[in-house]
Design goal:
Layout lengths: L2 H13 L2 H8 L3 H15 L4 E4 L2 E4 L1 H23 L7 E7 L1 H7 L1 H8 L3 E7 L2 H10 L4 E5 H5 L7 E14 L4 H4 L4 E2 L1 H6 L1 E5 L24 E6 L2 H9 L5 E4 H6 L3 E5 L7 E8 L6 H9 L1
Parallel strand pairs: 3-4, 3-5, 7-11, 8-9
Antiparallel strand pairs: 1-2, 5-12, 6-10, 6-11, 6-12
Length: 291
C-alpha cells in the first residue's frame, strides 16, 4: 500500500463517488476501483459499503480514514520542513460556486504572494466540509449553518461576510422600467418567477422553490425552474423573471431589489471559511490568522 493509495481512499470517503475522485486524481474509475480493492486486500477488511451509486464508509473504514488522514498530513508536514521557502505547494479550496464567486476574493490576493498553485473544487457544502475534514481540501467556503449541522467539531470558521436575501429583477424587467418596486401580494403572484430545482448551496430540493423563500408568506408564479444556477441568473438578467437571491449576488449583478408589501422576506446567512487547524501546514495557519 502506497501513500498515494491512501490519499485516494480518503478522497473517496469525502466524495462518495468513484468518478468524482477519479477525475480529481486524473485516473480512470476502473483504475481507482482496483486501487480501493488493493487497499482493502492489504488490510484484509472492507472499508466501504456500496449504497446505490455511492460508496459509504463502514465502521472500519471510518476508523481507517481517521488515522490515515493524520498519517498523510503528518507526512506532508514532515517533508515541508525540509523544503525551501520557495518550494511550490498546491492549495485546495472547495465550496459551492455561488459562494466561491464572492468569497474567493479574500483568498486569491494573499495566495498570489505564496509559491503555490491553487485548485478550486466546485462542490456542494456537505462535500466541501467533508473534504476539509478528511484533508482533501485545505479551505472551504460554506454557510455557518451548514458547518453547525455537519457534526464536525474539529474545524475552525473564519467569518467572511453576512448576506441577506431579497427578491430581485434586472433593470430591463417591466416592473423596474415602470418603477414598481413595492408590490402587493396579488401583484407579486402575477409576476413570473425563476427558481432553482435544487439549493445552490447544499444541492438538495428544499421546498417549492429550493431558494429559501417561504411560500406560505406569499405565493409565487414559478415559470422557470433551473437545474443550473448560471441558467437561473441568465433568466433573471434577461428581464423575464424575478428571483429570490443573496444580496451579494444582487450587488454583483447590479440587479434591483423588489419588496412585497406586508412580507418580511429578509433573513441573514453567515458565510465562513473553514479549515482544520490540528493538521494545518504553517502557510495555512498563517494565512487563516491573517484573515
Amino acid at each position: 500500500m502506497h501513500l498515494d493509495d491512501i490519499e485516494k481512499v480518503i478522497h473517496v470517503a469525502g466524495s462518495q463517488n468513484l468518478h468524482t475522485t477519479a477525475k480529481h486524481f486524473n485516473v480512470t474509475a476502473g483504475a481507482l476501483s482496483k486501487t480501493l480493492k488493493k487497499v482493502e486486500a492489504s488490510l484484509a477488511t472492507k472499508l466501504f459499503n456500496r449504497v446505490g451509486k455511492t460508496l459509504v464508509l463502514n465502521d472500519k473504514g471510518k476508523e481507517f480514514v481517521k488515522h490515515s488522514s493524520d498519517l498523510v498530513h503528518n507526512y506532508q508536514q514532515l517533508t515541508s520542513r525540509f523544503k525551501s521557502d520557495n518550494h511550490k505547494f498546491n492549495a485546495v479550496i472547495a465550496g459551492p460556486a455561488i459562494l466561491l464567486k464572492s468569497g474567493l476574493k479574500r483568498l486569491l490576493i494573499p495566495l498570489s504572494h505564496l509559491p503555490c498553485s491553487v485548485r478550486i473544487n466546485n462542490v456542494f457544502e456537505g462535500e466541501a466540509i467533508s473534504q476539509v475534514a478528511s484533508g482533501a481540501a485545505h479551505i472551504a467556503l460554506v454557510t455557518r449553518e451548514a458547518l453547525y449541522n455537519s457534526q464536525h467539531t474539529n474545524l475552525v470558521a473564519v467569518d467572511v461576510f453576512n448576506t441577506g436575501f431579497s427578491v430581485a429583477a434586472a433593470r430591463t424587467h417591466n416592473l423596474v422600467q415602470k418603477k414598481l418596486l413595492a408590490l402587493s401580494k396579488s401583484e407579486f403572484a402575477q409576476s413570473a418567477f425563476a427558481c432553482p430545482l435544487f439549493s445552490p448551496l447544499c444541492g438538495l430540493e428544499q421546498g417549492i422553490g429550493s431558494d429559501g423563500w417561504q411560500d406560505e408568506m406569499a405565493e409565487r408564479n414559478i415559470v422557470f425552474r433551473c437545474s443550473d444556477y448560471s441558467a437561473l441568473i441568465e433568466v433573471v438578467q434577461s428581464g423575464l423573471a424575478l428571483a429570490y437571491l443573496p444580496d451579494f449576488v444582487i450587488d454583483d449583478l447590479a440587479l434591483t431589489k423588489i419588496t412585497v408589501k406586508g412580507v418580511n422576506s429578509h433573513y441573514s446567512e453567515g458565510i465562513v471559511m473553514i479549515y482544520k487547524p490540528s493538521t494545518a501546514d504553517g502557510w495555512l495557519n498563517k494565512l487563516m490568522h491573517s484573515l
